[in-house]
Design a protein that fits this description.
5-stranded antiparallel beta sheet; mainly beta; 5 strands
Length: 56
């Protein structure tokens, strides 16, 4: 019988505001939208209500 480790918990896909963003990233507004790019290449798009949706 083979045991498989359970998957690690995924990062949330939506954050209520910028306080949930991981530290150390930068904001990119070059496309006309506000995207927060973290050092691990995870990108978050800021929505009109101030929340952030994970893009990848």
């Amino acid at each position: 019988m083979t045991w498989i480790d359970p998957p690690s918990p995924a990062q949330p896909m939506t954050l209520a505001d910028s306080t949930g963003l991981p530290p150390g990233g930068t904001y990119d507004q070059s496309t006309g939208q506000t995207i927060y790019v973290h050092a691990d290449v995870v990108r978050w798009q800021m929505m009109g209500d101030g929340s952030f949706n994970r893009l990848n």
